[in-house]
């Protein structure tokens, strides 16, 4: 559980993240629990800080917490800009979706990895053909490790 103290319009809020999934989180705001829908986390990975909540199901808190603009997506951090697709952080490969020789398009999901108890898509940085895949389902990977090569 991660606890964050916020001050909004002069009022202090204690926010505790109790559960965090790919589409929904359960948070506690000043001892009141809410299930919140996560609209878009962009390409950012949640680590020590948590992105602002986009949607709250309780009116009393949604009026107290100002809505944030949709975050801009950052450049694909899974690629060096070359042909190699690199692991954006350490984790576990859950599902390799493509095979060697498959044609892929930019942004196409090529594998799914788990990192920090969250599933993260690894997408193709370009249109091309999968030249090689360096990992298989169940592999533990390190940040920066080559996962695949797209040409």
Give a written overview of the molecule.
This protein is mainly beta and 151 residues long. It folds into two domains: 2-64, no CATH class; 84-150, Beta Barrel (OB fold (Dihydrolipoamide Acetyltransferase, E2P)), CATH 2.40.50.100. The chain is 4% helix and 44% strand. It has one helix at 59-64, and strands spanning 2-8, 11-20, 24-29, 32-37, 84-86, 91-96, 103-104, 109-115, 118-123, 128-133, 140-141, 146-150. A hairpin with a 2-residue loop joins strand 1 and strand 2. The model is unreliable at 43-80 (pLDDT under 50).
Question: What brief labels describe this structure?
Answer:
151 residues; mainly beta; OB fold (Dihydrolipoamide Acetyltransferase, E2P); 2 domains; four-stranded antiparallel sheet; 1 helix; 4% helix; elongated
């Amino acid at each position: 559980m991660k606890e964050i103290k916020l001050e909004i319009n002069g009022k202090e809020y204690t926010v505790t993240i109790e559960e965090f999934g790919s589409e929904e989180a359960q948070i506690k705001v000043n001892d009141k629990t809410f299930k919140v829908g996560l609209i878009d986390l962009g390409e950012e990975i949640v680590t020590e800080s948590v992105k602002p909540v986009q949607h709250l199901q309780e009116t009393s808190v949604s009026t107290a917490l100002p809505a944030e603009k949709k975050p801009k997506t950052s450049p694909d951090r899974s690629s060096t800009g070359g042909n190699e697709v690199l692991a954006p952080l350490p984790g576990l490969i859950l599902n390799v979706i493509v095979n060697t020789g498959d044609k892929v398009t930019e942004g196409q999901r090529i594998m799914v990895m788990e990192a920090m108890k969250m599933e993260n898509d690894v997408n193709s940085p370009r249109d091309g053909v999968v030249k090689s895949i360096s990992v298989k389902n169940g592999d533990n990977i390190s940040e920066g490790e080559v996962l695949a090569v797209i040409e």
